[in-house]
Amino acid sequence: MNNKQRWMGGVVLLGGGVLLAALLLKGQDEIKQDRQQKPAQVAEVETKDAVNHSLGSLTVDVETEKRLLEQQRRDREKSVAEQEARAAEFLAMQQQAEADAARKAAEEYAALNAHRMGQQSSDNIPPELVEDEQAKQKRLAEEKAAQDKKLALQKLEQQKANSSTEAAKKEAERKAAESKAAEEKRKLEQQQKAEAERKTAEAKRKAEEERKAAEKKEAERKAAEEKRKAEDKRKAEEAKKKAAEDAKKKAEAEQARKLLEGESDKQWMVQVALAANEANADAVAAKLRAKGYKVTKSPTSKGIRIMVGPSKDRETADASRKKIAADDSLNMKSAWVIDWVPLDKRN
Question: Domain segments of the chain: what residues?
Fold first, then answer.
């Protein structure tokens, strides 16, 4: 009976140790896996960041990704710590159960030894002892069943905890994926907005450049038109001036020719008198016209000049002077010949 009790205690101790070792190994594997995956995930994020950085708006925020990874790591470490706490609690409970079983076994062993010592003094075994042994076996079986049930319940609780941890992990991963997708969408929208603003600004700049170019072209056209008009005006003035100069030169040449050829604007006249007023001038002119002479009056600062002519040359004019002087009825002995130029032909 003593060996059977020891065997049962060893089985309980071995089973608890195996379960505790499995829990601890699982937690260590998760921590190790998390530490191994973290650099790879960070490297993957950095690689994606480098690639996406060249793609513009699809760039993943490295800092956001790092924070998500750090949060996942903390969640996993928290889950592992909870599992370790549950394992430690289970171990304490198991150790307490083992201690209780050992205590009960020691009590039973002491009772058995006492019974054996009493049996040595008597050849007959009391029927009460046999009954006590059966009750003890029943009690031990019930205790073992209760312990097995307790272990099964603890195992079920551990499985539920593991399931909850896995569900929490998947939920965290789902939220991280949603956050990442939302961030990518936000950045894509920002890029599209920036691209639209850039195109609008570019179109506005191009329109402004075209407007300025058109204004410059119009200003150049107007300047060219003004320059052409000014040039035409200058040429017209130069042509007019040249024409005037040519006309003047031509007139001067014609005047020189007339002087050389005996032709001139000068008219040979016979001045017969210088009247003090218009009445006297008219009286003298009437007397000369009565004789058939052509009379011309020309006002001067000293009086009104009365002349006969014009004649085509000096000789003809001098002949007329002599005729007038010889006419006693006219009484114009002091007549003389002059070269007279009309007022409208004087320079």
Answer: 265-343
Task: Write a three-state SS string for 273-304.
Answer: EEECCHHHHHHHHHHHHHCCCCEEEEECCCCE
Most confident of 101-115, 128-142, 191-205, 307-321: 191-205
Q: Please state whether the peptide bond connecting residue 310 to the residue before it is cis, i.e. omega within 30 degrees of 0.
A: yes
Q: Greater confidence, 135 or 114?
A: 135
How does pLDDT run across 82-128, given as a tens digit for each residue? 877 777 777 777 777 767 766 776 677 666 666 666 555 544 555 55
The architecture CATH gives domain 265-343: 2-Layer Sandwich (3.30)
Which one-letter amino acid corresponds to residue 163? Answer: S
CA dist., res. 188 & res. 5, Å (int): 72
DSSP letters spanning 217-286: HHHHHHHHHHHHHHHHHHHHHHHHHHHHHHHHHHHHHHHHHHHHHT--S-EEEEEEEEESSHHHHHHHHH
**Strand 304-311 versus strand 267-275 pairing type:** antiparallel
Question: Rounded distance, CA 194 to CA 201, Å?
Answer: 10
Distances (CA, A) of 193 to 49, 59, 93, 196: 21, 16, 63, 5
